[in-house]
Amino acid sequence: MSAVTTPARQASGGVNVKTVNRIVIYGLLALFAVFYLMPLFVMLVTSFKTMDEIQNGNMLALPRAPTFDPWLKAWGETCVGLTCAGIKGYFWNSIKMVVPAVLISTMLGALNGYVLTKWRFRGATLVFGLMLFACFIPFQSVLLPMATILGSVGRFGVTLQNSIGTSFGLGNSTVNLVFVHVVYGIGFTTLFFRNYYEAFPTELVKAAQVDGASFFQIFRRIMLPNSMPIFVVTVIYQFTNIWNDFLFASAYAGTGDAMPMTVALNNVVNTSTGVVEYNVNMAAAMIAALPTLLVYVLAGRYFVRGLMAGAVKG
Amino acid sequence: MSTVATSQIKLTPEHARPRASVRSRLQDALPKIVLAPSFAITIVFVYGFILWTIYLSFTNSKTFPSYVITGSRAYQRLWGWTFDTDPPSSWYTSITNMGIFGFLYILICLALGLFLAILLDQKIRGEGMLRPIYLYPMALSFIVTGVAWKWFLDPGLGLEQTLHQWGWTSFHFDWIKNKDFVIYTVVIAGVWQASGFIMAMFLAGLRGIDGEIMKAAQIDGATTFQLYRRIVIPLLRPIFLSAFIVLAHLAIKSYDLVVALTSGGPGGSAWLPSNFMYEYTFKRNEMAVGSASAVIMLMTIVAIIVPYLYSELREKPR
Amino acid sequence: MLRKLLIGTALATSFAFSAHAADVKEVQMLHWWTSGGEAAALNVLKGDLAKEGYAWKDVPVAGGGGDAAMTALKAMVAAGNYPTASQMLGYTVLDYAAAGVMGDLTETAKKEGWDKSVPAALQKFSVYEGKWVAAPVNVHSVNWLWINKAVMDKIGGTEPKTFDDFIALLDKAKAAGVIPLALGGQNWQEATMFDSVVLSTGGPEFYKKAFNDLDDASLKSDTMKKSFDNLAKLVTYVDPNFSGRDWNLATAMVIKGDALVQVMGDWAKGEFHAAKKTPGTDFLCYRFPGTDGSVIYNSDMFGMFNVPDDRKAAQVALATATLSKSFQSAFNVVKGSVPARTDVPDTDFDACGKKGIADLKAANDGGTLFGSLAQGYGAPPAVANAYKDVVSKFVHGQIKTSDEAVTELVKAIDDAK
């Protein structure tokens, strides 16, 4: 177990020092929790206020006459462009894009990390370095060349559709977005897994190899079961980034019926000229973030301590 | 774990044979085959596009890409702007802000993330509740949290106003309105957004550390502080690398943070290079200048990251 | 090269679609009008088209006053997926037309008589090399004052006719303890106000020379310096928290009576309407002092793309509906702007709208209708944004004197040209 419960046992002060330590730790954690929660508090109270109260009252004050209307409006009535059916319809668009993109990029990252640490070959470090540096490319500068390529692929898809009756998903906005997010996500997923597996005892892999386990058997039986904490981190990272991406989503999927949640949210929130309904905006933002929050809470459960304990002794 | 692996996997005859068969050669190449697709798409869609950007920076591309090479005028303009300090050019503001923001943001996030992870790793009751509290800022799109922060930092609406109402009338906090301090408010909001995730990365690292090592050190009489400084933190080195890369990339791409929070700041004083790049490429229709600024950003990253990567990644004697 | 490439992709698209012979009864429309009032206004058009049997495929991308939409448009054009039409501003239309991706609506224009009904100043942007490529939707005008009438009555103010009157009025407000001038300290708002200041300080001829022709001598002149001095004077009347404020919050200050006046384009009227205020009784609209008789405009246009043949009928229907008198009236009543053709009856408009329509007609006839530099109708985006930089840096103190501001302005515009 990694935790150092406290040095209380060695300290002469005994129980008192231990208690004081615990109080300090909990105090600090609570203090930071307040810092992190502050904007959420502002958003929450705002989402339950009427516009009148927002314009005239203090932003930190609790709503005088709490109303649930902004939430209902954000969910089912607010206008996304000319369609006034709330943001509820855009969940599915985002989910069917985010889930495959996260799964594919995470699995590729895990495999890459495994190869780069346990099956080193000449130049492996260079390959990793190149993939790592790829994380830094500004997305704005890939927007146009990527669009050109996706456009040609889409036309090829139409040709296929006309000649053999199926386009294999080429040119489909959702498929395009999944592809783009996988391309620009594997740098990070590879980084996370590679650095996690770096500390993973190579002896275990060597032993299994001697025993004749194949490449994939070792990955499935030894690496994967010991990767839970890093899986959590990677999935959280990928899910959040892809879910919240606006640039690619608006450029590659803003047209069709595949419009993801972020683009819809942006259309609700961002108005150039006109009245800004802050309460509806805040409610919409929180509704839009629910899937990510859910992932945090659910995935967080796998953060359990001591997963490695059995294995590392090897 | 290891016992499971040994007992279930039998020695295969192929492996025993000394001569390399087709199959075993395939086995040897398998890791490379697995890695190849990822590497290939990176080469095409990252390095190919970087080359494309470099090419454009030497053209006269305006609204659309143009492929006629016209020389280095874009770089000459950027170079000129680098020394336009009074009044500061947008480019000068962007790169100075990048220095301030990048340094503080990465440093504070790393320190705070590690600190919170260590605190949370002390067998805390309610960890399951605290973790999402620290993490949730990542989940919310900054399009909206930007508005909440903007209000909170606005002296007429937020913290200052509230404290005045509570009677502390001498309190002043108007950084967001001040051209010299606005970039620090971007740091505050940025740290709020990302530090929780860094905490999660460190927490994952801490959970991966072999408990036996810690126990041994404790028995040797190391204090908690010594234990973390001498043993735990060195073991977290790879996580530091991951965290650093994530933060550096977030810092460089912090575009919407600036826009949502400050709309560019008083007189454009909160601009970062990513704002500059977006402005010139898409708003001002000076794609060559936008591309040149992207190339300079990338080169700066190379200059900073590559030595770090080299020292971290070079093959260590085993 | 690019032109060939783009035409190539367009051809490829049209081949791809040639399999379906029948017309596509659908318009695909990229726009950033997502707020309640704007969407309601656009819904009028959607309804008009539905009556003719055309479905409306909505492509809204909001944010940054059209920045996000223009980025998305660029990506769509690069991919060869043109929308039927897109909301566009001024020089952007000409840029896309030069790249050869715009359609040709000249026939429709002839049939509908747009050449006569649309002001020449607007045709500069909707006609490229003799071909109609865009349908103007409205004309906004930016040289307006929006005043809270209750505050005005309280301080005993009257309509300011000159810049000095205006300063005197602001002083009165200051003495009475209200914030005299509501301003949002974002570069486009500051520059929009400065457009009016320059017109007021230098007169119509000067404005045109400096901000439409980008004449060097005018930009360098003492009149420009005086304009910056006047801007500096105005800025002393704003509250200390103005920097970064959104324009609609500044309007709200006037609506609530916290501030006396805002200098803003006529889209501000939408905010007053939303707050259920009526012109004349709750608020007043005056031309910026010293600019009566001239109009600084900007206009929303629907750029028409070179779509495949089977989508052209829908495009023509969209363009015709856009410039129909009934739509022009219905839309602009809601939006706060005035019709893009000068022959639309003003019966449905409120007092401010009626004045706007009359002013536009007079300015068009008298040759005093000028593009707003801040809004992208005075010069291409590179220049317009360089201009906004300088004005904003002057307002926020990075540029300290008006001498320096003039030097910087000349330098910046030169550099961006």
Automatic annotation (TrEMBL), chain A:
Its main location: membrane. The chain crosses the membrane at residues 23-45, 97-116, 128-154, 174-197, 218-239, 282-304. It holds the Pfam family BPD_transp_1. GO terms for cellular component: plasma membrane. It is a multi-pass membrane protein. Coiled coil: none annotated. This is Carbohydrate ABC transporter membrane protein 2, CUT1 family. It comes from Mesorhizobium qingshengii.
From TrEMBL, chain B:
The keyword Transmembrane applies. Residues 95-310 form the ABC transmembrane type-1 domain. It comes from the Bacteria. CDD domains: TM_PBP2. One of its GO terms (biological process) is transmembrane transport. It is found in: Cell membrane. It holds the Pfam family BPD_transp_1. Coiled coil: none annotated. InterPro entries: ABC_transporter_permease (IPR051393), MetI-like (IPR000515), MetI-like_sf (IPR035906). Its main location: membrane. GO terms for cellular component: plasma membrane. It is a multi-pass membrane protein. The chain crosses the membrane at residues 33-55, 98-121, 133-152, 181-206, 227-252, 287-310. Keywords: Cell membrane, Membrane, Transmembrane, Transmembrane helix, Transport. Belongs to the binding-protein-dependent transport system permease family. This is Carbohydrate ABC transporter membrane protein 1, CUT1 family. It comes from Mesorhizobium qingshengii.
Automatic annotation (TrEMBL), chain C:
One of its GO terms (cellular component) is periplasmic space. It holds the Pfam family SBP_bac_1. It comes from the Bacteria. Residues 1-21 form the signal peptide. Its main location: periplasm. The keyword Transmembrane helix does not apply. Part of a binding-protein-dependent transport system for a sugar. Belongs to the bacterial solute-binding protein 1 family. Gene3D superfamilies: Periplasmic binding protein-like II. It is found in: Periplasm. This is Probable sugar-binding periplasmic protein. Keywords: Periplasm, Signal, Sugar transport, Transport.
